[in-house]
Amino acid sequence: MREINNISKEIIGAAIEVHRALGPGLLESAYQECLFYELVNRGLRVVKEQPMPIVYKEVKLDHGYRMDLLVENKVVVEIKTVDAFTDVHFAQVLTYLKLGDYKLGLLINFNVSKLVDGVKRIIN
């Protein structure tokens, strides 16, 4: 079982490699596919577009949300290509963390010149 901080480092390293190869300016879906590929090649278990059901009283909405990537069933990765993060972006990741009872989320913005400036860790 990989420790959550080591998983986080692997994800960030893979994202940096993808960003170095592609640069900014592509669609989120392109970065998602490339990051998925890179993480799987590093031996990590990754699920794309993981459904996140919402339960309200007796009502269950099976596909209320979809996480971009879920790594090792521990770390939520949300990919963006925006000029700057907003409170809504942070709230989205925090919602995924709470609904899925996950401890760590990474919000990654590929629309930056240096990827380290576009990575935010969010802890539940």
Overview of this protein structure:
A hairpin with a 3-residue loop joins strand 2 and strand 3 (75-80). The chain is globular, with a radius of gyration of 14 Å. 38% of the residues lie in helices and 33% in strands. The protein has one domain: Trna Endonuclease, Chain: A, domain 1. It has 124 residues and is α+β, with helices and mostly antiparallel strands. It has a five-stranded mixed sheet with strand order 1-2-3-4-5, with helices on both faces.
The average pLDDT is: 93
What is the CATH domain class?
Answer: Alpha Beta
Using the 3D structure, state the CATH architecture: 3-Layer(aba) Sandwich
**What does the overall shape look like?**
globular
Uncertain regions spanning at least 5 consecutive residues: none
Any chance you could write out the topology, listing elements then pairs?
Blueprint: H1 4-22, H2 28-41, E1 46-56, E2 59-71, E3 75-80, H3 87-100, E4 104-109, E5 119-123
Give structural attributes.
single chain, 124 residues, alpha+beta, Trna Endonuclease, Chain: A, domain 1, five-stranded mixed β-sheet, 5 strands, 38% helix, 33% strand, globular
In short, what is this structure?
With 124 residues, the chain is an alpha+beta fold. The protein has helices spanning 4-22, 28-41, 87-100; strands at residues 46-56, 59-71, 75-80, 104-109, 119-123. The mean pLDDT is 93.
